[in-house]
């Protein structure tokens, strides 16, 4: 039956192809397209003033992307609230372009009352989601300009104690809105053991407060290099980082140029994983997990925000469907609903038409009956009149003149014609 055929599973055909079909070239196509289009990453840096945010960004991209704070906000004009500064940079490496946007948040934690210093940051994250949603929903859709923030690097003061109240409050409010990447700033100011202890305390503090930071996923369970790298990243979080002025380099005893910080007792090499976690952070951000950051932003964080926003706007929908529906499925669903609506309208119109025809038919039948009745009545009256006249004729014929007979003929003839 139809029911049986619907409930039976669709057979899956698995064949090992021995000849060349050509679709193995697909990854190359994707790669070529990605190289042509370039990549785009928007990273936000948050932390109290002087923790080395600008220095770290400049070290990450080996460029003076973030200018010294004074050139952006001279001391006299420093914002009284948290400001949002966007810095754009186009970076090219071996022919691959990266459109980088750094969102700096000067003023965070610098105020006398830091009670709601996270509000402007939360607002800019949500405003960007709103801008994306508006473009997604617009009738004439061009290429969507995506300003959503893919990563928020949160700088923790290297106190060696535990997280401060402001750190917990900030991360608690933002962990479901953005990929949080906590880093211990200026890690060169602590010893190796102090860093390890501090990391442990931070991790347990985060777990205690139910704060979910970005967890780098393993892409390929069979790729040992990917597994090892992802595990190393997971162990290193929160990354203990050290920033260095990209314009200053040191020469090592073997002649190699070093980016780092010089001390009387030696040089802290930011690119040496035994000195700090800077390299791991950089690999995760722009190498191994950039796509994972972008994907989680689009598929989890933005989608969660979007669902809430739609519900706020009163767009109710079945939750079980709503959580998993992709824009294409949603369009299909809208089309099916529209078609069902049209079919319903058509059926209603057909019904109205049928009722009208039936009514007309009834009216016609009624008038037919009436006409027939009138016809019978008239026929009876005529027959009666005919019989009377015939009676008269007979009487006249039995004793009257030819003139009367002739004129009677014409009267009868006129009646019958
Ligand atoms: P604002 O722009 O005021 O928000 O500060 P910021 O967080 O951007 O700090 P910035 O990068 O301007 O660095 C402040 C000072 O800290 C500078 O003198 C840097 O040289 C120094 N600094 C930056 N990174 C490090 C680091 O990893 N270790 C040490 N010891 N000092 C650092």
Give a brief description:
Residues 328-370 form a coiled coil. The chain is 51% helix and 12% strand.
Number of helices: 13
Bound ligands, named by name, code or SMILES: guanosine-5'-triphosphate
What number of structural domains do the residues give? 2
Low-confidence segments? none
Distance separating the two termini: 73 Å
**How would you describe the oligomerization state of the chains in this entry?**
single chain
- Specify the structural class: alpha/beta
Mean pLDDT: 83
Q: Characterize the largest beta sheet: strand count, sense, and whether it forms a barrel.
A: 6 strands, mixed
Domain Septin-type G: 37-312
GO cellular component, one term: septin ring
Family: Belongs to the TRAFAC class TrmE-Era-EngA-EngB-Septin-like GTPase superfamily. Septin GTPase family.
Protein name: Septin-type G domain-containing protein
Report on the architecture of this protein:
It comes from Mycena indigotica. Belongs to the TRAFAC class TrmE-Era-EngA-EngB-Septin-like GTPase superfamily. Septin GTPase family. It holds the Pfam family Septin. One of its GO terms (biological process) is mitotic cytokinesis. GO terms for molecular function: GTP binding. The chain folds into 2 domains: about 30-325, 3-Layer(aba) Sandwich (Rossmann fold); about 335-415. Helix content is about 50%, strand content about 10%. α12 (about 325-395) runs antiparallel to α13 (about 400-415). The protein is elongated, with a radius of gyration of 44 Å. The protein is an alpha/beta fold and about 425 residues long. α6 links the parallel β4 (about 150-155) and β5. It has a 6-stranded mixed sheet, with helices on both faces. Strands 7-8 form a two-stranded antiparallel sheet. Strands 9-10 form a two-stranded antiparallel ribbon. It starts with a helix and ends with a helix. Guanosine-5'-triphosphate binds near residues 50, 53, 54, 189 and 243. The site of guanosine-5'-triphosphate has 16 residues, from α3.
